[in-house]
Predict the structure.
Amino acid sequence: MKAEIIAVGSELLTPDYLDTNSLFLTRGLREAGFEVHLKSVVGDSAEDMAAVIRSALSRSSVILTSGGLGPTEDDITRRVVAEVLERPLRLDPALVEAIRERFASRGYTMASINERQAEVIEGAEILENPRGTAPGQWIEARGVRLALLPGPPREIEPMFESAVMPRLRRLGAGRRLAERSFRVIGLTESEVDARVAPIYTAYQPRVSTTILAAAGHIALRSSQWVAQGEQARELEELAARIDQALGDAIYTTSDEPLEEIVGYLLAQSRRTVAVAESCTAGLLGWRITRVAGSSSYFLGGVLCYSNEVKTELCGVPRELLDQHGAVSAEVAEALARGVMRRFSSSIGLAVTGIAGPGGGTAEKPVGLVYVGIADSGQAVHFRRVLPGDREAVRERAVFFALAALRRFLLPPAP
Amino acid sequence: MKAEIIAVGSELLTPDYLDTNSLFLTRGLREAGFEVHLKSVVGDSAEDMAAVIRSALSRSSVILTSGGLGPTEDDITRRVVAEVLERPLRLDPALVEAIRERFASRGYTMASINERQAEVIEGAEILENPRGTAPGQWIEARGVRLALLPGPPREIEPMFESAVMPRLRRLGAGRRLAERSFRVIGLTESEVDARVAPIYTAYQPRVSTTILAAAGHIALRSSQWVAQGEQARELEELAARIDQALGDAIYTTSDEPLEEIVGYLLAQSRRTVAVAESCTAGLLGWRITRVAGSSSYFLGGVLCYSNEVKTELCGVPRELLDQHGAVSAEVAEALARGVMRRFSSSIGLAVTGIAGPGGGTAEKPVGLVYVGIADSGQAVHFRRVLPGDREAVRERAVFFALAALRRFLLPPAP
């Protein structure tokens, strides 16, 4: 049940790009019972690609390739796989038509090089690509299953889910990696480890656990391989103990993004929110509105990058800015109150901070962020000095603001 | 002058981790005249690692491994490389002592398993590790240079810089990769290829060119290896011809993000901008403010998610919204004018569109986006139907808006 992933593309061999597709491919393979034992990245060299595919055929039962299915000269995956498998490559007239129609529906004329994308390896099944012109291919050869998938994440993700996963699940025959995950906010990686290491080490090696510091949260993941019909009993027991040890520092056990949790809490309590963003300059509003349907609780916001805007649009008194500075608890609360009134929302959420690289002082260092939250009854603030460069501080500030809003929205403990 | 990178570690085969060391290793290798043509990730399997190293020895002149040099059972890099090279592994007593002292200086007693880290492949030079206990090794065998390096970024980075780069530079003898890059907006990948393929294919293989569709733009990169003192004459000639073929669809030739170009044009002409964002809900403001120092030309904005906000904060007449709908040329222009007045900026930039998944109609499909731009003299709009899901539409809408603003800011052609 060994799987291997081959990413194709010269850009993945530069200092600028990483193959990130392999992450969700790995997640899917594990769910279907396959363990990824090797990953490779090759460029547009037919010789290298052929060598890697030959080796893969000799040691893996599933091979997934991503990339190299485009219409240009350097898109060579189809041709190389056909050569290695010693099978002809044939132009599929129906596919040519489908690609031509796809172009036409967008008002473009198909360039003739795009025909190349309709070349199919003999015996391959076509995997439809609703998001692009390059179809995928599924091939069984020498006891190995190969899936040739496109490179762009927005094309490969839906194709993998809809066309490859069902095939993998059939092959996996019920073996699966049972997983439980926890996302924690408000504790450091070492604090999380100190609380849970005494617990999870007792379940090793049957259940393996990893702790990972991500932007704005700590991710904990425990997993156990189980055969069809088998229960992941140790995993469930461990998960219950972790749950108890971390309590409500866990904001989700389902990999749900924080903005969905917050959206759910807002919708459930029929409250609306408006944002005032200084240093984040829109990132908070963008994140809140990643949730489809967020327009029912998100009314809008103000990007109050300058002090004038803080005063004129968010009603922060000039004196408050002069006395405490734009990055202060007082201004964070005033911004929250001001944007709430301006938008007639139930809640105002404000972020003000020093993202850097310049602008820090000994008293107010780069990374200092205040979050203000107001509703009709009160205004509160939260302070944190966040690590990292300009972009990291801004991203973490958004997580910090959403985590604070989540706390604010949680019903009081009984 | 081909190089290959092998990352070792089971955690790099999970859905949570990527091998990021290869990025700076690649940068260094290119600087020293080596081209990375293959990257692999293997777990703690001796069989897989041996297979990959054997293949690498047959096709590359430099091999860098990272990871697997620790003291535990699953740290097998030293042993596997020794086996493949058929050279003995010998305990180096001086190294044992150095590791013991390192532990002692931190108040620890060295556990006996740590002795394993002092095992050296016959003929290898030791690469010191000031940040950890695992020393690296530099080996010449069968005409190939191998460097065994530790996995943790804080250990591998200084070791690579101080011990490996000087050796690579000597080997490279002044050879380097000359590069020219172009970023294009407003054309599809196939359109770009159709225009430039006849040109760049004529320079192959001496100059290699890749075309990559990124979110919102197409990236073109041409590169040519040159020896010490040599000029990249073909590359420069090709670049001039590409420049002519693509004209001002090229928005930068320096890998500069679009927001930097726009920032430069704004600062240069001493103009300021404010934004009105509907469907993008902050992403545009966030992107503009990624540029440090953007506060000199970015005044702020309004996230006008609801129609009320469009009217009350951005001064869009109610009748206009009723008559044309929020996603229309008229409203895009009115938003741009309104936000310009509200913020007293020289320019107003507005985005309104249907990001989906819901809300589309036959007449106004999901993906329809209008960008409005206003200054004191005029208001203009741009219309586009953008492909992709909710997030892709929003990201592309931001690029589309920035590209439109760039056009607006460009001095008229002479």
User: Anything to note?
Assistant: Chain B touches chain A through 86 residues (CB under 8 Å).
